[in-house]
Every structure is written in C-alpha cells, then in structure tokens.
Amino acid sequence: MHNDTQSRHLGSNGPEVSPLGLGLMGMSDFYGPADENESLSTIHAAMEHGITLFDTADFYGSGHNEMLLARALKGRREKSFVQVKFGVLRDPAGGVAGGDYRPASIKNALAQTLRRLGTDYIDLYQPARVPRDVPLEEWMGALKDCVAVGWVRHIGLSEAGAKTIRAAHAIHPITAVQQEWSLMSRSIEGEVLETCRTLGIGITAYGVLSRGLLSGHMTPDAMAGRREFRAIAPRFQGEALAQNLALTDALGRLARERGCTTAQLAIAWALHRGTDVVPLIGARRRDRLVEAIDALDIQLCAEELALIEAAVPAAAVQGDRYDAAGMAMLDSES
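Structure tokens predicted for Oxidoreductase, putative (334 residues):
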C-alpha cells in the first residue's frame, strides 16, 4: 500500500490495521449481481496492496459473503483483520425480516460464522444494529463471554448513539464504532464522535462514497429498472438524485483541478477525518479498488478541506440515507 507508515489503530489501545478497509457487502448482496471471480480477484488485489481489514456480515447473501471471504483468505487468515456484523434476519425471498440479538442467538450466529469463515476466532464482532427488544446488559454480556473464551478478540458497535456507546463500553471495552460517514452523511460529527474520542474508540466509516453518489460514475437514470437497495433509498429518487448529483459535479470540478478523480477526493476527505478513522471502501472490481487506494497519496490542507466541504455542504444533500423504516432502526440517529 502507498506509504506503509499510514497504518492506523482502531482506538487508542486497539489493533493496528491498514488505513483503508475493504467492505464486502456489494460482492454478495444489495447492489445487484456481482462477478464472483472478479470479487475474489479484488480481495486478493486488496491484500497485495496492503489492505488488512475486511468487513463482512453473516447476513450478506445469507452466508455467501463469509464463504467468499473464506475462499479469498485461505492460507492468509493470520495476515488479515476480519470484522463481522450479525443479528439481521433474512427470509427465503432475500428480504430483511427483523433482527435477533438474544444471547443464545448471538452465540449460535457466531458458531455458524466461524464455520463459514474456516477460522476459530473473529477479530471484531459487532451487532448490525442496536437491539431495542433485548437489554444491553444481556447482549453485551454474551459478547463479553465470547471474548473471554477466545472466539472473539474485539467488540464493536454499528450505528450506535452516544448513550449506548458509553453504557456498552462500561461493560466491556468497545474497540470501534461503525457508522456511515461521508461528505453527504455527517451526523456522526456530534456527540457520537465526541464520545468515541473521549473513550479512545476507533471509527470504521462506511458509505464514504455515499453508495456511489460521490463516485463520479453515477448518472441521473442510474436507478431506472434496477432491483436493489438504492432503488428505494430516498437519496436516489427523482429530484433528490438530481440535486445530489449536482453536488457531486461540484466536487468533480475540484477533483479535476487537483488532478484526481471525484471518488479519490471524497475518499481523501474521509481519510483526513482523523487517524482514528478507517474508511471502508466498497470496491467490487480491481479497477475501482486501485482508484480508491490511490487516494492515500492525496494530502489536503485546511483550505482545500474547506473548499471540498463548501462544494458538498451537508445541509444541501436531499433525502435520508435509508427509508423511514431503516432510519427508525438507527440508534445513532435517535
């Protein structure tokens, strides 16, 4: 990877990982079909470029994503940091059917994850959402048990609010919090971020390209006829999509002046949020992976960061990042 000195720690006392992580969701689910051979080649290329952090979930493709990662990491598991989300239930039609975060269910899910990944431990295990129907002491207690046995090395949270983070951290140290964070999604930049930094908790930022809006590759008719997550996401609908792509065009003009791509400038901005932040890139192809990794070479001064944020002001972004039901599940937004 460009400039090996850029490795980062998840939290003040956490493990050392690459400055970028690879998010694998799109290789199995939610973004339409993916080429499995290209997915494997992309994971291998990521490792060759120095990426060590791989983000997956047991419900991505109902286990497919974990099995894909297992194939890619065969013989190289010890050189990787695997973080897994759990708790989301799926139905046979591919839909989401709620969540299950009961202690016995957590351990059952972990048992299946360990088998699919072909490993005897998970580097970081985290609930996909903060449960509302199971007391925090119960699900955190189950995760603490898993650490004590050695099945899990670190505990994380996803889309958690500040109050939850503090309460969970008091039961067992939280290593990292995963939340959407991009030029178009900046709600973390308040009490959640302040709490994480006070407690020495790292951040793994997903959606740094706002699910493709900031990639520079999306067109106004990109969602026409598509059957995937973004086709129902408010930010990708009609006038909201047009407005958001206009913001991306403004970012693109700055990128061209800088001699980089729109996506690279958006990723560079995310990398400059702090050395306690590890952006997750969702590349499904090797060319997109290399484009993202090259963002590591972009250094931005305070003036340039201000220009970038003026080009894509958070208040100008149209539409929520999830539909109403999805937003209601976010403890981070409550």
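The mean pLDDT is 93.
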